Amino acid sequence: MLKKNWEMYEGNDQYEGYCVDLASEIAKHIGIKYKISIVPDGKYGARDPETKIWNGMVGELVYGKAEIAVAPLTITLVREEVIDFSKPFMSLGISIMIKKPQKSKPGVFSFLDPLAYEIWMCIVFAYIGVSVVLFLVSRFSPYEWHTEEPEEGSDGPPSDQPPNEFGIFNSLWFSLGAFMQQGCDFTPRSLSGRIVGGVWWFFTLIIISSYTANLAAFLTVERMVSPIESAEDLAKQTEIAYGTLDSGSTKEFFRRSKIAVYEKMWSYMKSAEPTVFTKTTAEGVARVRKSKGKYAFLLESTMNEYTEQRKPCDTMKVGGNLDSKGYGVATPKGSQLRNGAQDKSSQALSLSNVAGVFYILVGGLGLAMLVALVEFCYKSRAEAKKLKVESAELNFSPAPSPTHSVQNLATYREGYNVYGSDAVKI
């Protein structure tokens, strides 16, 4: 896009933006000089159904008026038949732009909004059910019944305290006090009653925590009611008009689509009066802003999100993307610029990039060898101790029995003759 004070500059310096920076990097990468020019008709490129002539950027490339197109040019099958594209440099999809609706005024009972209507009704029934169960178990359990007899020698009147504190009204009051996290002046005495109370306290803890968390979100987040949330919402109504750019991939998408919803939308758009198509994206955005919510513009998500963040911030994107595609750098069919822009896009990794991996490998191998050496030494020492013990056991000879002892036992061998004392028998 042109700079604000573009008249003060010349040539390529008059322009700024993402695509301008991308073109500069591509030129440095493949070593070319370039001159930026704006397409005269301001269109991306579509083929006229009658004359079969291409307009916009695609036409400039097809008819040899430009060598390369660096722009948010969507890669489509029809365009790839006549020009070449690089790999996508940005992913996107068709989205819906509407005028941002007014903030909704909070209602008198908006404090109930954090929880759904069904949840509130279930809480009421749960409160009644817990109170009834508490009343019943208190009546059946003998530990909830108690009587106070007057002390011996006391002339005072008998106690007016009931034998069971958990009547139906007290049960309701106990459950309400627990739900409001205020407690009560009496508590269950029986195990069954305490189980009911404990379960109800846990239920109350979860419900109150959830309500508090959602209430904080409801108070801090702006609530805006949008009449349109998806393409299906647009297709099934006629009060809000919708259209696309007159020449571009978005219009071509609806024209060629075989999906029932998109076919219905295309049927409406091509027959709408006055026309719902715009010559430029800026015209479509301006129409959305001036329509007071009666016109929705179908355009690519990148431009939609960009416009939403720009002042006066009165547009918004609704729903998800209708399709998935990408932007690519376009060149004439068979151009060498396309190969140059892609083949040199990456460099081989040097040793310094992966040196750490080799260090880890060598360190791991060294650690493994050290552990193996320690294991070998430990095992060898253990085996040596074991052999030493076994050898000592073999060399040990017990003392001769007294009944078989022979005095003056002395034998020795010299040559082949054996000599002994008189007490030795050979």
Automatic annotation (TrEMBL):
Entry-linked SMART domains: Lig_chan-Glu_bd, PBPe
Domain of life from the UniProt record: Eukaryota
InterPro entries the UniProt entry points to: Glu/Gly-bd, Iono_Glu_rcpt_met, Ionotropic_Glu_rcpt, Iontro_rcpt_C
Catalytic reaction equation(s): Ca(2+)(in) = Ca(2+)(out)
Membrane topology: Multi-pass membrane protein
Record domain Ionotropic glutamate receptor L-glutamate and glycine-binding: where: 1-63
Protein localization: Postsynaptic cell membrane
MF (Gene Ontology): transmitter-gated monoatomic ion channel activity
Gene Ontology, cellular component aspect: postsynaptic membrane
PANTHER family associated with the record: IONOTROPIC GLUTAMATE RECEPTOR
Function: Receptor for glutamate that functions as a ligand-gated ion channel in the central nervous system and plays an important role in excitatory synaptic transmission. L-glutamate acts as an excitatory neurotransmitter at many synapses in the central nervous system.
Family designation: Belongs to the glutamate-gated ion channel (TC 1.A.10.1) family.
Identification of the protein by name: Glutamate receptor
